[in-house]
Amino acid sequence: MDVGAGTHTQPHAPHATESARAPGAKKTQPMDALIIEGGRPLAGRVPISGAKNAALPVMAAALLAPGEHVLRNVPSLADTRTMARVLEKLGARVEFNDHVCRIDTTRVNSVEAPYDLVRTMRASIYVLGPLLARFAAARVSLPGGCAWGPRPVNLHLEGLNAMGAALDIDHGYIVGKSVKLAGAHIRHETVSVGATAQIMMAATLASGTTIIEGAAVEPDITELGRVLIACGARIDGLGTRTVSIHGVERLQPIDCTIIPDRIEAATFLAAAAITGG
Question: Which domains does the chain have, with CATH numbers?
Answer without folding.
Answer: 52-257 (3.65.10.10)
